[in-house]
Protein: Diaminopimelate decarboxylase
Amino acid sequence: MVSTPATAAASGRQYLPVLNTENPSPNQYLLPLTTRVNGQNHLEIGGCDVPALVQRFGTPLYILDEATLRTACRQYRQAFQTYYPGESLVIYASKAWNCLAVCAIVASEGLGIDVVSGGELFTALHAGMNPKTMYFHGNNKSVEELKFAIDTGCTIVVDNWLELQTLAEMQQPVRIMLRLTPGIECHTHEYIRTGHLDSKFGFDPDQLDQVFNYVSQQSALECIGLHAHIGSQIFELQPHQDLTAVMVQWLGKAAQYGLPVQELDIGGGLGIRYTEADDPPSIDEWVKVICDGIVRACQAQNLPLPKLIAEPGRSLIGSACVTAYTVGSHKVIPDIRTYVAVDGGMSDNPRPITYQSVYRTLVANRMSEPLTQTVTVAGKHCESGDIVIKQAQLPETQPGDVLVVMATGAYNYSMASNYNRLPRPAAVLVNAGEASLILQRETYQDLIRQDCLPERLQQEP
Ligand code: LLP
Structure:
C-alpha cells in the first residue's frame, strides 16, 4: 500500500466532539464529551492535559472520563423513566470494564450490574454494589460460582439444563431468570452475535414448555424473570424491536405455568461510533424502541407490564475512554507502507486482531498540525498481526509523541493480557481537572507473583 498524504486542511481537531444538542448521546461521539484542545494545542480530557497525564502516569494509559460515563448512565435511566410507565432497571454489563472504580461510579448512578464470573462478582461486591441489583450470567458457571452467587443474594440468570438441575439439587432458595435464545439475527461480527439459534448461550425456544414445567415444580427456584441478549455493537433498531415481541410471548407462556415472572431483561447491544462511518442510534432512541415495543406487546396480550431491565456495556463506557501510547520506532518501506510503532498493542487492545476492529487516532501533542501521512500504527508484540490501526492519518510524528486511540473504554482493559509479559497499563479517571489512578500499572514483580518455581528447578546463585 502506498503511503498517501491526507487532506492538508485536516488535523486531529476534526475528531473533537461538537455538542450541538442539549442531550448528546456519548455513544455517537468518537471522543469523550469533555474533550477539547487547550491553549498549548494539546488534547485535553476531563479538564486534564493529556501529554501531562502521560508524563505523570506513563504509557500505555487508559484515560477514563467520569463525566461521559455518568452522562451515559443518566441518559439510560432518564430514557426509561420517560418512555416506560412501569418499573425499570439499567444494569451495567461489567464485562465491558470491570474494576472497583467503574463499579462504584455506575452504582452511584443508580445502576445495577451484570457479572459473568466469580471474579466480576467479587469485584462488584467489593465496590459496594447492592447484591439485589446484581445479575449473574454465564453459560458454564461452576458449582463454586453458583454457591458464591447464592450466598451473596444476587439473581442467577440460568443458561442451561445442567445449571438448572444443579441449582434445583442444591435445594437453597434462589432467585433465578431464564436465558432464552430468541432466534433473532443481527448484523454484527459473528463472534459477538448471540441471539441466533446456533449460539452456545441460553435455552432453545423449542424447550420452553419443558423448562417452564420443570421450574414450576422446583420449590427452591423462584423464577422472577426471562432474559435474552442478541449481540453486541448493533446499529439497527429492528432486531431489538422484534425481541420485545418475542419476549412478551414468552412472558405470556410463563404465566400459564404459574411462574412468578415479573422481569424481562432485554440484554444490551447498542453500538458505538468507532469511526466517522459508524452511525449508531442514540441511547434515547434505543430505549424508546424497546419501551414502546414492550408496552405494545403487553397491551396486545393483555399482560401487566413487567419490570423492564436492560444491560448495556459498550454504549455506557466505550466512548468515555481513550488509550494514550508513546510513539517509538518508525519503519519506512518505500512505496509500500510506513509503520509507526507504539508501546502497547494487542495486549491492551485485542479487538483489532480478534475482530478486525477499526479505530481512529490522533497525536495529543500535535492537535493543530495537518495530517500529512497515512501510516500503519503497529503494536510492540512479537506478532505480525499486532496492528493497532492499519491506515491512520497522522501529522509528522517523532518518537516520544503521544498517540491517542479513541473509544477504548469497552472490552479493552477487560480483555487485556500479559502477552509477551507486558505489564498491563495503568488507568486514570479524569474529572474537572483532576486525575485519580483507578488501576495501577502492573510491575515486573506483579508478572511473576503467581509463578512457582519447584525446588528442584532452583539454580544455585
Ligand atoms: N448482556 C449479555 C448477556 C452479554 O453477553 C453482553 C455482551 C452484554 C449484555 C453487553 O453487550 P454490549 O452492550 O456491550 O454490546 N468482546 C466483544 C464484545 C463481546 C460482548 C459480549 N456480551 C467486543 O470487544 O466487541
About this structure: The longest strand covers residues 321-333. Residues 238-256 form the longest helix (19 residues). Residues 314 and 410 are 5 Å apart (CA to CA).
